[in-house]
Design a protein that fits this description.
Number of helices: 11
Distance between the termini: 43 Å
Number of domains: 1
Structural class: mainly alpha
Protein name: DUF4125 domain-containing protein
Number of strands: 0
Pfam family, one: DUF4125
Organism: Bifidobacterium reuteri DSM 23975
Radius of gyration: 17 Å
InterPro entries: DUF4125
Strand content: under 5%
Length: about 210
């Protein structure tokens, strides 16, 4: 994908590419209901990618293309990595040997990013409790075999990024944390989410929650 493609077209191509990989992801117990819900998938992933700049979008699009060429599925790997918390024995036996290992340095850098994003998510939930209630549980300590937290999901996703993509993502989070006031990426993502759902603001969406 060249630099001439617009950000909107690039986002749409990424979401469609992820969806195609998602369709090829095997779920224990059969096909998951969310694998048949394109509108919700499109809304949630598009909202996230609307917080990304062009160079990060382009780098992740290359990751997806490279994965196809290598016979890998980044969505499958993402959910597999989450199992290190939700199903550790199965992860060790059936997942870990077959996915790329992360270096100690990469893990350390990811954990710094994750800590910042968990803090932002907690802040958002405190200010918008009704919308927060509809989100995933927050921390890995809350994981169960049936429930995956925001923290664990993020750890799984970041682990699939190439070094080039993660470096750009890491820089984005650092830049958002260093400005005053900080730019809370959870808040911006949820704002895009509710706007795609027909609301004008987070406050309007919060008020509409039961």
């Amino acid at each position: 994908m060249g630099s001439e493609i617009t950000d909107e077209a690039l986002r749409e191509a990424i979401v469609r590419h992820e969806w195609n990989q998602f369709q090829d992801t095997n779920n224990e117990g059969g096909r998951a209901a969310c694998q048949g819900n394109w509108p919700v998938f499109h809304q949630m992933r598009s909202a996230q990618f609307r917080t990304w700049q062009h160079d990060l979008l382009a780098s992740y699009a290359r990751d997806l293309d490279d994965a196809d060429h290598e016979g890998r599925n980044l969505i499958t790997e993402k959910y597999g990595r989450m199992m290190t918390s939700t199903a550790p024995e199965e992860y060790a036996r059936n997942i870990k040997p077959y996915i790329p290992a992360l270096s100690p340095d990469r893990i350390s850098r990811q954990e710094q990013v994750i800590a910042q994003q968990v803090a932002w998510a907690a802040d958002f939930r405190a200010r918008y409790p009704k919308l927060g209630q509809a989100m995933r549980v927050l921390t890995t300590s809350e994981d169960t075999s049936a429930v995956t937290s925001f923290e664990t999901y993020l750890r799984g996703e970041l682990g699939t990024y190439s070094e080039a993509t993660f470096r750009l993502y890491e820089s984005m989070i650092r830049e958002r944390a260093e400005v005053s006031p900080q730019r809370n990426i959870t808040e911006e993502t949820l704002l895009h989410t509710v706007r795609l759902g027909g609301f004008d603001s987070l406050a309007e969406a919060e008020d509409a929650q039961r």
